[in-house]
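User: what does the whole thing look like in 3D?
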Amino acid sequence: MFKKLHDDGAERVTVTIDGREARVPAGETVAAAALIHGLQPFRTSAVSGAPRAPYCMMGVCFDCLVEIDGTPNRQACQVRVAEGMAIRRQDGAGETAP
Amino acid sequence: MTARHELAVIGAGPAGLAAAATAAELGLKVALFDDQPAPGGQIYRGVERTPLADPAVLGDDYRRGADLAEAFRASGAAYHPSCGVWLLTPERELGLLDNGQARFVTAGRVIIAGGAMERPVPFPGWTLPGVMTAGAGQILLKSAGMVPGKGVVLAGTGPLLLLLAAQYLRAGVQIAALLDMTPPSNALRALPHLPAALSAFGTLAKGLALKREIHRAGVRVVKGVTSLRALGEARLEAVAYEAGGREQRLDSELLLVHFGVIPESNTTRSLGIRHLWDSRQLCWRPVADAWGNTGAEGFAVAGDGAGIGGALAAEYAGRLAALEAARALGRIDAAERDRSAAPVRAALAKERRVRPFLDVLFQPAPELISQLADDTVVCRCEEVTAGQIREAVGQGCTGPNQLKSFTRCGMGPCQGRQCGTTVSQLIGHTLGRPVEEIGAYRIRPPLKPIGLTQLAALDGEGEAAA
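Assistant: Here's the predicted 3D structure for the full assembly of 564 residues, as structure tokens:
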């Protein structure tokens, strides 16, 4: 869906996205990193289980909710990546993720 | 102990940066709180540290944000990034989520500069992965140097759509189509506002230059587009629409939509500030005087959160609100405030003269709301459809707050930000009554979801316990 215009030479950190390791620019949002690395969808909706992914990227739609380091319902577009961060797709409301 | 500031500024976009810098230069003890990690807001996002090798891609206007950020950094105002506000009380207590830690501060005065958000307009398939706003696309460009891989479709109406198209073209991105959903009748309706707008000729010239740039690049621009639909199962596969009376279809994995911007009004609403329905901008805005003062004692609003005026107008409004804060807190008298304000007010008035023309020229079609298909999702969080809302109205539901108990519409994590404006308009249309009579969702704290563990970590003094 998206690609990088160029390698900006930024410092990298290692995160896992649904268990797969990825080297991503430090300071980037979880949403940007996960979009580039193909997390698809980010979550399934709480009511019907429909697939969802980032929509607004500015913190007002809450459709980019993922599980970060074991905590569900984190806004991927508002959280910066950090070394060792574990990012996971979220199922439904996120409370009973297996 | 709870920290006390003379002036708290919420938001680090053009209004907030200008307000904080101006107030600090007048000797006020200022603290600025912003949920983003760096100054700039959305319009100047990433302005201090762009990931782009060639920042010229973003255009000249973007650079003004760098000057604003620099002046703010040098002003002595305390800066609290990654610090969202989840509670405001009439006593001017602010509940903060500061880098994930809850704490409270109090302030003598507060300037709310929360800015705008893109107008959410429901259409079939708008919740599919691969459908995003044009603003989202621009944020990814500004903050992460990311562009669409191939065949992006842009659709909707408004200056941002044209600007994004031009920025993508400068970055070498191939655009499959630009679907212009601006109602053709808008141009004629906007015409009476053109003479006033000509005084801001620069703004109009920039708009025309963007159109020429898009035309010269050979982008397929389709006029008079209606009935936009996003098709796909797990993700976007194609975009369907009508143009010239014919059904069209484009295969695509990314659709970026835009229907203008509206004030993000949850913050001002949570204080019980009165809001007016702006029938030209088709959105709610808080009632405020010429300094930004609202009905809530000590609270002012500045920038697009007080009504859409654009980045320059926001900057000027921020300076005016800061001058008024300095007067209210005894740093300057009314005469000095007025003297300092005069050139700012003149610049603001000039900037605002172009708005009525732009507002009408890019007004989204009323049919986007009135003709919403019954099975289209309006509330993205609780997945409530237009049909369910009409049905609730048919059963006697008279307003947005009642609708919550009928359907749970507006009760999800976005707290009505995505459906609120649509719901007020749709109920109004269904009942045949004006939107201002219908009202809007009551907004209660927390303004952003906050975890119980974060709340529990607060001690009695409002500081996070060690």
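In plain terms: Residues 4 and 51 of chain A are 24 Å apart (CA to CA). DSSP finds one helix and eight strands in chain A.
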